[in-house]
Amino acid sequence: MRITFLLTQSLESPSGLGRYWPLSKELVRLGHEVTLLALHHNFQTLQQQEYVEGGVRVHYVGQMHVRKVGNQKLYFGPIQLILVSTLATLRLTKAALLTPTDVYHICKPHPMNGLALLPPLLLGKPVYLDCDDYEAASNRFSGSWQRRIVAFFENSLPRITAGVTVNTRFMAERLVQLGCQRDRIVYVPNGVDRTRFSAIKDVDIERARRRLGLEDRKVIVYVGSLSLANHAVDLLLEAFALVQRAEGRAILILVGGGEDYEKLQRQAQALGLRRVLFLGRVPPDEVPLYYRLAEVSVDPVRGTLAEHGRYPLKVVESLAAGTPVITGDVGDRATILAHGGGLLIPPGDPVALSEAMIALLRDEPLRDRLSAEALAIRERFYWDRLVHDFTRIYGYERA
């Protein structure tokens, strides 16, 4: 088949890097022709807007709704946002109409790619939708009007497309409640790129330890967005303040950027955290290295609707690296860890989170057991396996 994805983010975004890019490469390996029409966070600076990599044709057509500069995420004002979004929608529409394809697949039910797919939909082309987040609950909005627009598309698009792929049971049930037929919904959890997570060598880990001065440290790592709208990194800092008093060798490494990067740095300073490293955004190929550096990784959650609607990439990435993970018992997380690999704690509780981190730092046999469990179950989270589930939406069954 010829499959065209429409993505309102760049391939360096969490969903682009963790879901749509590896999925596209695996679809190509199965013999499909895949085109990714996407928006970029710094479109004007792109030197190459169209290229082919891993057999996937990638075409950036315009600016996404935010800009990313260094470790910061910058938002447009209301008027500029309308202009940027309108131009991006027109460019996505034009690119979609000019791309020879058998099916279109909307990546996220956003207004821009939703409007862009209306002409092909009216022309009778098969259009599918992927819901990998609870958009109206997880995004940051400057006004209630923005939230209402996003909610309208998020609630409407699943009912008019040929089928919907989702990455959480929560989202599948939500769509059924909205009126979607259950047999038009295919559950495909988030996964990891096998190649990306097998490239890190022991020598790379030792070099990084020396470079960061971690030889005598016990490392806790958080990898993800520093955006408090949908990631409870402030909860993690509160918990680490308790860990710091109990474990003198503990150090917390934060990998990622976002609009609250500086705010979280100020919080760490106010809490008196002396052993916290803010590394900012790192190249995608380096991400597995930081999981491997750590004794434990953390996915801090409070139990919001956004967290129920998210399949945490950081949890499955940690399992792929063989690093024990701590997370809250929210959404699909209990299912992910049903066969071990980490600890589930009550969400939103900094004391429970600190106690879990201290327990893992002190109990090496427990860490070894959880690490072995992670390595034993990681196979189910590789995209070269999950891709077969994804193609069921088009009528293909696993061979």
What does this structure look like?
It is a single chain. The chain is α/β, with parallel strands linked by helices and 399 residues long. The protein has helices at 14-29, 78-98, 111-116, 118-122, 135-138, 144-160, 169-177, 194-198, 202-212, 233-246, 261-270, 287-293, 305-308, 313-321, 333-336, 350-362, 364-377, 383-390; strands spanning 2-7, 33-40, 50-53, 56-63, 66-69, 72-75, 103-107, 127-131, 163-166, 185-187, 218-223, 250-255, 276-280, 296-299, 325-328, 342-345. It is globular, with a radius of gyration of 21 Å. The two termini are 16 Å apart. The mean pLDDT is 93.
Observed structural traits:
six-stranded parallel sheet; 399 residues; eight-stranded mixed sheet; alpha/beta; 16 strands; Rossmann fold; 44% helix
Low-confidence parts lasting 5 or more residues at pLDDT below 50?
none
Helix coverage percent: 40-55%
Q: Which of globular, elongated, flat, extended, rod-shaped describes the shape?
A: globular
The protein's oligomeric status is single chain
Q: Give the overall average pLDDT.
A: 93
Question: Main β-sheet: number of strands, strand sense, barrel status?
Answer: 8 strands, mixed
CATH architecture of the largest domain: 3-Layer(aba) Sandwich
> Which CATH class of the largest domain applies here?
Alpha Beta
Q: Approximately what portion of the residues adopt beta-strand conformation? A: 15-25%
Stated plainly, the CATH topology of the largest domain is called Rossmann fold
What's the alpha carbon Rg, rounded to whole Å? 21 Å
- How many domains? The number is 2
Strands of the biggest beta sheet: in what spatial order? 3-4-2-1-7-8-9-10
Q: State the helix count.
A: 18
First and last CA, distance: 16 Å
CATH superfamily of the largest domain: Glycogen Phosphorylase B
The count of β-strands is 16
Question: Strand pairing plus helix content: what structural class?
Answer: alpha/beta
